[in-house]
């Protein structure tokens, strides 16, 4: 058989002789036409692709399309791709009455999740709170994590494993806080949490490595408390939501286009605003896409205050209701990992000292991780996630070494920092919407206990969106309106 | 427009038939058997929904078998509830002061004679090989005199179920967890609540990677308990130049067959 390539190569010089003057051949490089026949396979593939694109059902556009551009219309836009955002996305799809009733998209600024609070979290879950709502949310979340494969399991995929350690939280209280701890334990037991109270003698017997000086009473969570892997949970939510039809887009929400109606009263005018669309700017590009949406869910974590400001919340004149802004700001917290060969063994719980320092076992090789929340006036700078090792030497180590004498000799292996989405008003979640900005739903402000409440909070906001009210847990105490009326809902067990 | 799609599917068909039903990719029950069902499941929502419903039915079945036998509580007490649950699921019960085990017969039937013993404490329960799960333990948590619990080879017993056993801290002396595929070291860590435990059997737990290390840590955690079923040398590859087993705590070298994907060795 004559191979077409060889034949055409042989005929090549004949075909490509330019029609210049006699005897003169212009040779700069190989002429184009020759390549068509020598790389026939590749050329054929290119030709097939062009043919497919010219058929009616292709997305070819002569001006080219940017990959990953969000759609022009969406029903619900969830700003923030952390565990809260994906939890709301999953629950919206799980609870909607008809399949594909809502078009839900999730817009996340950072594809690498380098500063996301979810993945930098220590990953603990506890029911030892003082507010009934917090206890109920944590209990539901523990039930969700236990039955995670029934909720988030995808057909043909391996079962989800979040590496849940059941070692529990141990809160130590000194004399002055003992009464409050006992009262909290009664509230927790009333709402179904299994918590036991321990005296210093019982503590010493159970945990011989502990120094019980200054400890009046301790509370230990017997069930549904421990720590797990936040990245697995985030991925489980994300994969299930995407399997149910939620689309993820990377980009930053730069501005909102807000329509408002004014109500004239004798005391002045009140503006009721509604977001009509938002601008999403593509990563590393100046291109932005307007997305017309019905509802916006603010799940931006530490940056949700900034996002709400972009939508115009809190920009009114002083003294009016319109000046109330979302008081959520990033606060940096450090976590240190150290190795201590003779430290507490398998029974080591997540221990929270009377001074506020905490630590837990990490793995089986004698590694521990822990930290401490700094005092109000010593908050570190938030512009980057650099770790301050002096903080460990001066503030964390002495407290831990006092409580666990073996920690006198330890070696710090590594450390990292992450942001809390800190609610400066009362350190509790802000869930729901506000009449001044009707269609923005907040799911933020958890101040360090967000990950453990994410399944319950996501379900609550999804119920609010689909049914107009909370159906399973009554979280009306966490509404934005408490900020308008200056009613603090304080939680006393903050770590 | 339809022609290219049909062409694509025809090209895939022989490949499908070749990847035959004989080599189902995973012995776990999640995957549909056979290439054609998988192919259809990937492309049609209806088939995917039917298979997902079938999976959900499996969970419902386990839930039904583990329901709480509360109707007996009012008249007979918590111990009889536990006995009824155990016999219903094919297990065995021994009362305090008795030598004989009460078990159902080969066809799963059992007589209601145990109702006369409504004031006697249950001492030992054998639920090996049964479908007992976290919810099924609702029937057992109110027992006050339970000394021995056998949960060997139960496929639905996982770490969450072990975390419920703290209620037996004053009475349980013997716990058998042989061959439970879902129990890991994270669940074993919450057994430190069982202060009276004297015999713990953890042989043949496939989900545990560093068996020797876990044995040492468990013996430190429960000093008065005898832990059987594992060797110090399990999970440690000893080569001729290896150091003494005291180094195990720092860097156990795990042969690749014992290492599970995704688990970071300590």
From TrEMBL, chain A:
Its main location: mitochondrion. GO terms for cellular component: mitochondrial inner membrane. Keywords: Electron transport, FAD, Flavoprotein, Membrane, Mitochondrion, Mitochondrion inner membrane, Oxidoreductase, Respiratory chain, Transmembrane, Transmembrane helix, Transport. Its cofactor is FAD. It is found in: Mitochondrion inner membrane. Residues 75-464 form the FAD dependent oxidoreductase domain. It is a single-pass membrane protein. InterPro entries: FAD-dep_OxRdtase, FAD/NAD-bd_sf. Signal peptide: none annotated. GO terms for molecular function: oxidoreductase activity. PANTHER family: FAD-DEPENDENT OXIDOREDUCTASE DOMAIN-CONTAINING PROTEIN 1, SARCOSINE DEHYDROGENASE-RELATED. This is FAD-dependent oxidoreductase domain-containing protein 1. It comes from Pelusios castaneus.
UniProtKB/TrEMBL annotation, chain B:
Residues 256-266 have a biased composition (Basic and acidic residues). It holds the Pfam family DUF7885. InterPro entries: FBXL15_LRR, Leu-rich_rpt_Cys-con_subtyp, LRR_dom_sf. Residues 123-217 form the F-box/LRR-repeat protein 15-like leucin rich repeat domain. It comes from the Eukaryota. Residues 240-266 are annotated as: Disordered. Interacts with incompletely assembled mitochondrial NADH:ubiquinone oxidoreductase complex (complex I). Belongs to the ATP synthase subunit s family. Required for the assembly of the mitochondrial NADH:ubiquinone oxidoreductase complex (complex I). Involved in the assembly of the distal region of complex I. This is Distal membrane-arm assembly complex protein 2. It comes from Pelusios castaneus. The lineage of its organism: Eukaryota, Metazoa, Chordata, Craniata, Vertebrata.
